[in-house]
Amino acid sequence: MNKKQNSKMSPVQFLFRIIQGALIGLGAVLPGISGGVLCVVFGIYKPIMELLSSPVRNFKTHVPKLIPVLIGVAIGFLGVANILSFFLNRYPDPSVCLFIGLIAGMLPSLFREAGEQGRSKGSWISLVVCMCVIFALLMGLQMNSIEVTPGFVWYLFCGFCLALSIIAPGMSFSTLLMPLGLYTPFVDGIGHFDMNVLVPGGIGAVVTVILLAKAVNTLFENYYSLAFHGIIGIVIAATVMIIPVSSFATPGSAIVNIICIVAGVVIALALDKFNSGVKTE
Fold first, then answer.
1. How far is CA 198 from the centre of its chain?
2. pTM reported for the whole predicted model
3. Nearest to 100 by CA among 196, 5, 238, 221
4. 224-241 and 195-222 are packed helices; what angle lies between their axes, rounded to 10 degrees?
5. How far apart (Å, rounded) are the C-alpha atoms in residues 220 and 226?
6. What is the pLDDT of residues 93-136, one digit of tens each?
7. How far, in Å, CA of 273 to CA of 220, rounded?
8. Is residue 177 exposed (0-12), middle (13-18) or buried (19+ Cβ within 10 Å)?
9. Is the pLDDT of residue 225 over 70?
10. Can you tell me the distance from the alpha carbon of 201 to that of 196, in angstroms, rounded to the nearest whole number?
11. Cβ distance 217 to 52 under 8 Å?
12. Nearest in space to 155 (alpha carbons), one of 97, 207, 211
């Protein structure tokens, strides 16, 4: 990506990136959604991983592009946490269905990007294996509901899960925390800027990034097709697992959910088309 083009981001591109960041931040909080998945579907996962793995080397080339994204993430994650809690309590299933549509609508662009360096038999094997692993992991978490008492150590774990949901697309931190009873206190703590939650959570997230980001980025540099197709498998499995099947039982709720899914697909296709028009190579 050209440095001059990055440094001369137009106001429309800047606003577009903020909107993307807000959706990523919103998706990070929304139960069952992975912020990393939305990073992938918006085409900013690679530059984020490159920056996290080598912050000094990539600072000048990557930060100008990612600043509006980070602003949006702060708006979506911190500023909307309390509002989101309200909508999740009132309209949880339509909210999730909207994001399902968003992710589904971006899958074609994911496949295009995954095939940029060609596809092999190993690429498809990677997709299927990763998809099966995530299915098994998420099903296991759903079947074994174990609750713990929140505290400093557990909030460290929450920070680890939060960072993991960015580094490993498809791994929603809410999916990992809900079976343990940690999701609600963690999100409430973030929404109310509770330092007893933010400090250990931040430490856990930073340590996780330091330990895992470089390894993941190296994997992409050396095995791009295998890694990217594996991520698509993770995205597909994670998306299927968050479908609120029970909410389709009645005609009324089913119609609302379908409308939300279709709206998400339409929005995703529009974002993809717009993103293709403003993306600089």
1. 20
2. 0.65
3. 238
4. 140
5. 8
6. 887 788 788 778 878 877 887 888 888 999 999 999 999 998 88
7. 25
8. buried
9. yes
10. 9
11. yes
12. 207
What is the rounded CA–CA span in Å between residue 281 and residue 113? 13
Give the whole-angstrom CA distance, residue 181 versus residue 261.
28
pLDDT at 81: 63
Give the separation between CA 177 and CA 179, rounded to whole angstroms.
6
**The residue to which tokens 């339409």 are assigned:** 266
- Residues 6 or more apart whose CB falls under 8 angstroms from that of 55 comprise none
Q: Which two tokens stand for residue 53?
A: 């793995």
What CA–CA distance (Å, rounded) separates 136 from 114?
24
**Residue 113, amino acid:** E
The rounded distance, in Å, linking the Cα atoms of 127 and 222 is 17
Q: Tokens 């038999």 correspond to what residue? A: 121
| The two structure tokens encoding residue 281 | 């190579």
| Contact criterion met (CB below 8 Å) for 169 and 34 | yes
Q: By CB neighbour count within 10 A (0-12 exposed, 13-18 middle, 19+ buried), where does 214 fall? A: middle
pLDDT tens-place string over residues 40-73: 777 788 788 888 878 888 888 888 888 888 888 8
- CA–CA distance, 42 with 61 (Å, rounded to integer): 18
Interatomic CA distance for residues 104 and 98, integer angstroms? 10
Q: How many CB atoms lie within 10 A of CB 237?
A: 21
Give the Cα-Cα-Cα angle 17, 162, 34 (nearest 5 degrees): 55
